[in-house]
């Protein structure tokens, strides 16, 4: 955030200071650990049900040999040997079991301990291990990454491991090796009597080994015979459950009121939990104040990314605990909060009065315009932030955005290099059983790929040539769907020896090749992942000769390209999938300059929270703050008629829902819910529309349900009644619980896939989508392509056009022949 002409502490100095503070806190919270003799040290108190990683002491920045020795590490920087676990270790004060599927937020405090610390549990699934890992061979390994917040220090850690293993493994030779950051934390024996059944074991991990970013590795050392064995034998396996968990006991570290640390402590990229950050307003925030808050929430949403972010609105009150962001002007300010004198657009940080461990981020201005200036400067990082308060004197050079230029989106006007989309370190693998090379993509949802061969992919890949013909391949998939398989050739592929390929042989012995492919467009939704799997065939050499060597490599060249430039932007609407996956059509402009959010005339705190979370979701999609968003109340909706509208509220306080009932697929009153429904059966009567159009056919029936009124959340899309070609997406909920359930769906990668068509009903974690609403189109096609598109969907029109054309041609030929005949008669 700082500029070159302002002093900002270097990362090394900050790391040393934080390491020293962590060591002090660790000494205070674990005196028994530091004072016990090294050989007789007891495991630190920890609860069953979770795991933590160990970090090498040598990796702690700024630690001297003497300090390391005092912490239980030898003077040469090596760690003492850790004990092998022969029996399950009894845990003290077990923490609540982790729900492996529940989404955790930063508001989850876990179990609060008497000493002021807390203990929480993270399942492997919550740490990103979506499928149960399977370890195969003599040294199969799985890695589980995790991190620790910068304002916390781990004082206790425990791995709760759930696993099973092959009955064929020899107990004396086989075991599981648990490592943290490459250091052995424990070895787990595999006794014969527990083979083939689920086993649960608690493994304590010394907290002094945990750093900021950590890798927990579990390796199978497996053997099935005392004689010569096949390293790839089918009996060498162990399965881990992704319900296994990591339990962390943490203590808080003191934080300074310093803006140079932003976005810390309000957002910490080490924290994988969903961000929950309250926004505090006065009693009745105005539209401009809410627009400023939307800028900041979209900025935090872009930082949170895959985690998701919610921003509960607090009116005239601070939250009881935790960090918060306060928006105030000279006329609009929360009651009971003492603020500094406002002398212009100001960004400041202060201690939370209700929670001395927490902080307040103050976004201030004398009026609403200055408040938006402060929010914009914060989101763009155009000023150097240092100290407790900064006043923005000028803000210039904010360029207007162009359609589809969101920083997070793959450019659609040119071919894009893989090196622009992924770090180079993530494009290479090694070994016979490597992990996938993954390339995450965000594509514009409205790419029109009708009757094309697919998306052009120019792939340059490197590989270790095989000494003889085998089944080695590079397998290419998109979102786990197979696309292509490329053979890895031998030394003399195509009759050319390796010596003749010196121009393409790298220093590591790999050879590069290029191939042009086409990825089917239906495999590329707006959020996609390309996956490259190098499979090197294991050649059997015979008994006692099968020794696997780590001498194979594979890499995707960063100069490989994906080209979307040949696809126009044109999409059938309403399409809630496009909204749920990419915030479309609002995110078409990265700054949301063509978007207006419409709130009720008397909105509730949950309406404000839904608005802020929705803008955070769009910021995560675009990677850019919503500098151009407009906020309006329902009574003034005609003033934003030329924009796409995001409608938020409840049927009881949003009068637009009654006035626009004829345009919407859903309407509700106090006792009746009415749905406009379409069904594929009606498509049989509309066969002339063509198979490409019946999925989102126009509505054909009205369904009314009488009862206690709407009890579920509703997401619907329809064409704006105010202007053709503009879209409306409505997020409707009668209660705060409805709003919370709706946001959970929008931020859950599994649930958001169920948003389809023009109408979706959300009940708890259940989503019911209905193909409903009149179809309209957004975007434009080249004239000739549009003509092909229209005629392909209307065969009767095509036949009529052919008939008219035949009549016209016949008439022209008739006149031409009559003239020829007349000339001949004259002669």
From TrEMBL:
For this UniProt record, the keywords arranged alphabetically read as follows: c-di-GMP, Cell inner membrane, Cell membrane, Cellulose biosynthesis, Membrane, Transmembrane, Transmembrane helix
Q: Which InterPro entries does UniProt cross-reference here?
A: Cell_synth_B, Cell_synthase_bac
Kindly state the subunit structure of this protein: Tightly associated with the cellulose synthase catalytic subunit.
Membership in a protein family: Belongs to the AcsB/BcsB family.
Q: What does this protein do?
A: Binds the cellulose synthase activator, bis-(3'-5') cyclic diguanylic acid (c-di-GMP).
Its pathway is:
Glycan metabolism; bacterial cellulose biosynthesis
Location in the cell reads: Cell inner membrane
PANTHER family according to UniProt: CYCLIC DI-GMP-BINDING PROTEIN
Task: Tell me the domain of life.
Answer: Bacteria
What is the protein name for this chain?
Answer: Cyclic di-GMP-binding protein
Instruction: Report membrane topology.
Output: Single-pass membrane protein
**Matches recorded under Pfam families:** BcsB
Name the Gene3D superfamilies on file: Galactose-binding domain-like
| Organism in which the protein naturally occurs | Robbsia betulipollinis
Where is it mostly found?
Answer: membrane
**Segments passing through the bilayer:** 796-817
């Amino acid at each position: 955030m700082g500029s070159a002409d302002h002093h900002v502490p270097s990362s090394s100095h900050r790391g040393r200071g934080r390491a020293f503070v962590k060591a002090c806190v660790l000494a205070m919270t674990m005196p028994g650990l530091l004072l016990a003799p090294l050989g007789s040290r007891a495991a630190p108190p920890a609860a069953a049900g979770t795991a933590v990683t160990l970090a090498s002491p040598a990796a702690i920045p700024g630690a001297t040999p003497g300090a390391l020795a005092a912490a239980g590490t030898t003077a040469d920087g090596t760690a003492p040997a850790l004990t092998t676990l022969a029996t399950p270790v009894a845990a003290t004060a077990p923490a609540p079991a982790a729900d492996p599927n529940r989404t955790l937020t930063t508001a989850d405090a876990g179990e609060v301990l008497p000493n002021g610390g807390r203990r929480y549990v993270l399942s492997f699934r919550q740490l990103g291990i979506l499928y149960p890992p399977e370890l195969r061979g003599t040294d199969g390994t799985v890695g589980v990454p995790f991190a620790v917040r910068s304002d916390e220090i781990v004082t206790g850690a425990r791995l709760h491991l759930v696993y099973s293993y092959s009955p064929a493994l020899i107990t004396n030779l086989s075991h599981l090796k648990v490592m943290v950051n490459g250091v052995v934390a424990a070895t787990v024996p595999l006794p014969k009597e527990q083979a083939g059944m689920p086993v649960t074991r608690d493994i304590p991990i010394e907290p002094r080994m945990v750093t900021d970013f950590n890798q927990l590795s579990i390796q199978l050392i497996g053997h099935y015979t005392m004689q010569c064995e096949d390293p790839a034998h089918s009996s060498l396996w162990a399965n881990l459950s992704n319900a296994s968990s990591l339990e962390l006991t943490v203590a808080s570290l003191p934080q300074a009121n310093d803006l140079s640390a932003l976005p810390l402590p309000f957002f910490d990229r080490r924290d994988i939990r969903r961000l929950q950050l309250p926004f505090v307003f006065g009693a009745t925030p105005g539209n401009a104040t809410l627009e400023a808050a939307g800028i900041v929430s979209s900025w935090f949403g872009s930082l949170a990314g895959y985690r998701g972010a919610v921003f509960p609105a607090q009116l005239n009150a601070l939250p009881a605990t935790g960090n918060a962001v306060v928006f105030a002007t000279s006329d609009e300010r929360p009651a009971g909060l003492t603020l500094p004198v406002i002398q212009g657009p100001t960004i400041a940080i202060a201690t939370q009065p209700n929670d001395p461990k927490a902080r307040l981020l103050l976004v201030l201005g004398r009026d609403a315009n200055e408040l938006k200036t402060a929010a914009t400067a914060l989101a763009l990082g155009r000023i150097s932030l240092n100290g407790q308060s900064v006043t923005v004197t000028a803000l210039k050079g904010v360029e207007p955005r162009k359609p589809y230029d969101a920083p997070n989106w793959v450019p659609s006007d040119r071919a894009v290099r893989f090196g622009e989309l992924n770090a180079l370190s993530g494009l290479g693998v090694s070994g016979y059983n490597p992990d996938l090379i993954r390339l995450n993509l965000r594509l514009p949802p409205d790419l029109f790929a009708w009757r094309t061969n697919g998306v052009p992919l120019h792939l340059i890949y490197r590989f270790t040539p095989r000494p003889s013909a085998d089944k080695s391949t590079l397998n290419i998939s998109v979102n786990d769907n197979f696309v292509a398989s490329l053979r890895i050739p031998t030394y003399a592929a195509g009759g050319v020896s390796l010596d003749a390929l010196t121009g393409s042989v790298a220093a590591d012995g790999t050879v590069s090749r290029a191939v042009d492919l086409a990825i089917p467009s239906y495999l590329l939704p707006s959020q996609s992942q390309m996956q490259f799997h190098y499979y090197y065939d294991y050649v059997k050499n015979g008994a006692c000769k099968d020794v696997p060597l780590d001498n194979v490599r594979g890499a995707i060249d960063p100069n490989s390209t994906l080209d979307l430039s040949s696809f126009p932007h044109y999409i059938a609407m309403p399409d809630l999938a496009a909204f749920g996956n990419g915030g479309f059509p609002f995110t078409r402009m990265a700054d949301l300059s063509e978007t207006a959010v419409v709130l009720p005339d008397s909105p509730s705190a949950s309406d404000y929270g839904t608005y802020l979370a929705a803008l955070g979701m769009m910021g995560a999609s675009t990677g850019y703050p919503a500098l151009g968003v407009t906020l309006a109340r329902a009574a003034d909706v005609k003033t934003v008629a030329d924009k796409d509208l995001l409608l938020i509220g409840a049927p009881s306080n949003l009068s637009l829902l009654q006035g626009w009932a004829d345009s919407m697929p859903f309407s509700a009153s106090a006792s009746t819910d009415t749905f406009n429904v379409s069904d594929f059966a009606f498509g049989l009567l509309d066969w002339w529309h063509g198979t490409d159009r019946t999925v989102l056919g126009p509505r054909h029936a009205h369904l009314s349900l009488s009862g206690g009124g709407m009890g579920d959340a509703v997401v619907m899309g329809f064409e704006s009644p105010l202007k053709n070609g503009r879209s409306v997406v409505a997020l409707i909920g009668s209660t705060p619980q409805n709003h919370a359930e709706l946001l959970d769906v929008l931020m859950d990668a599994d649930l958001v896939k169920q948003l389809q068509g023009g109408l979706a009903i959300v009940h708890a974690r259940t989503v019911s989508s209905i193909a409903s609403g009149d179809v309209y189109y957004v975007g434009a096609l080249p004239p000739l392509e549009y003509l092909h598109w229209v005629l392909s969907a209307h065969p009767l029109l095509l036949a009529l056009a052919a008939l008219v054309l035949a009549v016209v041609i016949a008439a022209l030929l008739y006149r031409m022949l009559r003239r020829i005949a007349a000339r001949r008669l004259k002669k």
